């Protein structure tokens, strides 16, 4: 009897994936979605300048992209008033989270998050054989918040290698004021790295984001071009923090992994802050519209600092799932959290008026069928 | 005293990176290269159809790419007469090698390669805490070959989790006939996965590549769009093999990591086999030219089945490095292997006639200065 191929850890990992793409759902049903509002993409798109920069870079793509991403890091440093050595760039926040879990944990190490928070972080923790501990969201029905006090209390007791915290939060859309996040940063144990996921930070209202020069060795903050900049399909995100901690990423990352088009596109995106400002305005306006649709349908939209709205359907998970299923059948792609008590909600990304109208109609049909 | 941040393994890893990009060298010297012949990129570029497909996809890049890459996998399956479940797609072979090392090894596990073979594979092995064992290249001066007999003998003795083998080989350009590779596949221990890196397979002469339907549970073969297809900067490669083994990648990969532009570009590249055929012809012709340049300069070019030529400088590593340094100073980017006995060579990628002429002139200056 020979030893098995693949490691005991690999063989123990589930074959499930964090998120099923809308394309997979379309292949299952044979019907294309009319509106794509499930993945918190920005249908307002990338800036035309980004599209032009990427199209120009396409023809130069016989050459590897700069593995040090010097031009992009210089642009990011200027944008955030940091230095290039404060920044590492990767294949989206997902890729960077995988690297940080790789660097900070070994099999059996403890990691802390909130029950119902970002599944892809949990996926990377499982992939490393680290052990995930969770505290509940603070339930102020209908609102749900990641619970800073509970995270701190548990972290002090268990001294995990990593604590995950998102602000603004996905999938609830809720947020904490900067002072509360700064307290979390200050009070998390020194030997614990705070994984501060700020994917939605570019669209957060004033007073939500801690200052960017708040640098600690045990703090790594994550941003992306996937959300407000409208570049989800491009795959470029970044982490920033203490140079000694940021430098660790160079030990495990895929050095040539950020494409030439992605680097050119991200530089162009940073250079078009007026487009970003307009997008954030459009997001705010569409969020109002989406909130109105939910209220008019008798459901409860949660306050959101993001490009999506979590809508409390007012009953249990089965009810929310039934609504989700009917909305999908109507050709509108949305998602819902998989974990209680968050699973009383559906989650809808904002879109253009045409997208919002499609959701409004789909929701009306769904509620009629489900009730 | 608090526990340190980052794991003992991470802290033990060197901060060195597998390859320094030409951009970093340019930043150090302040001078831009006139010819870029060091990274085995294809200056013949991607097909115009690929450029058009990626430019079109740029505007759609607000949406994540299909995490299952269904269209691309279907196209690859048709191209190779395989099934989609035989194939996994990732952010270049580099990214996929990282995933396979992650899946197959745990800290302390043995992995086997050849001394001087692909450094990025070794980098991923180190990142996992696995232990690298190496056998020498078979030295038939001037030629150098990965030594199938030595690899098999050592693998039978040590039963490593992985054996790395490239055909055609980088950095020597040498190759083995398909029958020899098939013997390696047949005779490698059942509990060892053979990592068959075929990055240069699309430009190999007839009789070098084993048939693509040669599928074994302990065989994973790697291909890329970076070399013959001229898409190094796009970041898309794939692995194929037994569905049970290929499925493992889904447990650790970055599911949304292959960009929308990369997927569209790769599909277009597969659809333009005439461009590939022309590129392979241009590579062969440029290889002849490069071989002639080396011979005329009194150096010894090695036979190559790739888009580069390893040139034996005929003395020791210091001599080869001195030539390399002078060629770089002349504004021509080339590389050389870092490990004996391969470090008696410089390695030059093929290019257009203008690139080849620049190298010819730079080599003449270098030899005059060094002698």
From TrEMBL, chains A, B:
It comes from the Bacteria. Belongs to the class-II pyridoxal-phosphate-dependent aminotransferase family. Histidinol-phosphate aminotransferase subfamily. Keywords: Aminotransferase, Pyridoxal phosphate, Transferase. Pfam families: Aminotran_1_2. It comes from Aureimonas glaciei. PANTHER family: HISTIDINOL-PHOSPHATE AMINOTRANSFERASE, HISTIDINOL-PHOSPHATE AMINOTRANSFERASE 2. Its cofactor is pyridoxal 5'-phosphate. One of its GO terms (molecular function) is transaminase activity. Residues 36-356 form the Aminotransferase class I/classII large domain. Gene3D superfamilies: Aspartate Aminotransferase, domain 1 (3.90.1150.10), Type I PLP-dependent aspartate aminotransferase-like (Major domain) (3.40.640.10). InterPro entries: Aminotrans_II_pyridoxalP_BS, Aminotransferase_I/II_large, HistidinolP_aminotransfase, PyrdxlP-dep_Trfase, PyrdxlP-dep_Trfase_major, PyrdxlP-dep_Trfase_small. NCBIfam families: PRK08153.1. Pathway: Amino-acid biosynthesis. This is Histidinol-phosphate aminotransferase.
């Amino acid at each position: 009897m020979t030893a098995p191929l693949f490691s005991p850890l690999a063989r123990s990992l589930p074959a499930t994936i964090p998120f099923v793409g809308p394309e997979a759902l379309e292949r299952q049903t044979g019907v294309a979605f009319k509106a794509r509002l499930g993945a918190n993409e920005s249908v307002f798109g990338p800036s035309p300048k980004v599209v032009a920069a990427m199209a120009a870079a396409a023809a130069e793509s016989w050459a590897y992209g700069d593995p040090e991403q010097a031009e992009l890091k210089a642009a990011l440093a200027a944008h955030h008033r940091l230095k290039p050595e404060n920044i590492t760039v990767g294949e989206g926040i997902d890729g960077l989270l995988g690297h940080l879990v790789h660097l900070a944990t070994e099999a059996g190490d403890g990691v802390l998050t909130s029950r119902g928070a970002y599944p892809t972080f949990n996926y990377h923790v499982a992939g490393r054989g680290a052990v995930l501990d969770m505290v509940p969201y603070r339930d102020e029905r209908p609102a749900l918040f990641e619970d800073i006090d509970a995270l701190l209390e548990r972290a002090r007791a268990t001294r995990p290698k990593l604590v995950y915290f998102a602000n603004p939060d996905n999938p609830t859309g809720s947020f904490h004021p900067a002072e509360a996040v700064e307290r979390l940063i200050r009070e998390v144990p020194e030997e614990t790295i705070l994984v501060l996921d700020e994917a939605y930070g570019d669209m957060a209202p004033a007073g939500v984001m801690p200052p960017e020069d708040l640098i600690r060795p045990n703090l790594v903050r994550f941003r992306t071009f996937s959300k407000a900049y409208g570049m989800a399909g491009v795959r470029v995100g970044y982490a920033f923090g203490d140079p000694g901690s940021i430098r660790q990423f160079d030990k495990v990352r895929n050095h040539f992994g950020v494409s030439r088009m992605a680097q050119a596109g991200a530089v162009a995106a940073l250079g078009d802050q007026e487009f970003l400002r307009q997008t954030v305005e459009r997001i705010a306006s569409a969020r109002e519209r989406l909130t109105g649709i939910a209220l008019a349908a008798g459901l409860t939209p949660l306050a959101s600092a993001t490009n999506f709205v979590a809508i409390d359907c007012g009953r249990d998970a089965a009810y929310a799932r039934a609504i989700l299923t009917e909305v999908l059948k109507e050709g509108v792609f949305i998602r819902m959290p998989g974990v209680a008590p968050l699973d009383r909600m559906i989650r809808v990304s904002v879109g253009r008026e045409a997208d919002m109208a499609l959701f409004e109609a789909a929701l009306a049909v769904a509620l009629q069928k489900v009730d």
